[in-house]
Design a protein that fits this description.
Strands 1-2 form a two-stranded antiparallel ribbon. The N and C termini lie far apart (32 Å). A hairpin with a 2-residue loop joins β1 and β2. With 96 residues, it is of the alpha+beta class. The protein is built from 4 helices and 2 strands; from the N terminus they run ββαααα.
Length: 96
């Protein structure tokens, strides 16, 4: 990767391993044109300590399977289905 815009990070969706853009410029370029201004504004006003979380959220939006997976997870939780959830302090179940 010679170009910083080609930097990627990896996540996993129901479709498997997925590479996402890992720079501000790369994320902006991968977003639909109508979302770029909103992304730029949010990234510009985000405090440095919160920037990784904001960038990761926007990077996930560049992959339709990741968007579909997140929407399905939110719908499941909103419907009261907490199967496969682990309490944050449950180290025996795999929580950190």
């Amino acid at each position: 990767m010679n170009d910083i815009n080609e930097a990627t990070m990896v996540t996993y969706t129901t479709a498997g391993r997925t590479e996402l853009p890992a720079t501000i410029d790369g994320i902006r370029a991968a977003l639909p044109e109508d979302e770029r201004e909103e992304f730029t504004a949010e990234a510009g006003r985000t405090p440095a300590g919160e920037l990784p979380r904001v960038l990761a959220r926007w990077a996930l939006r560049t992959d339709q399977q990741a968007v579909d997976d997140a929407e399905a997870q939110y719908a499941r939780l909103a419907a009261g289905d907490f199967s496969d959830c682990v309490a944050q302090d449950d180290s025996e179940a795999g929580a950190a």
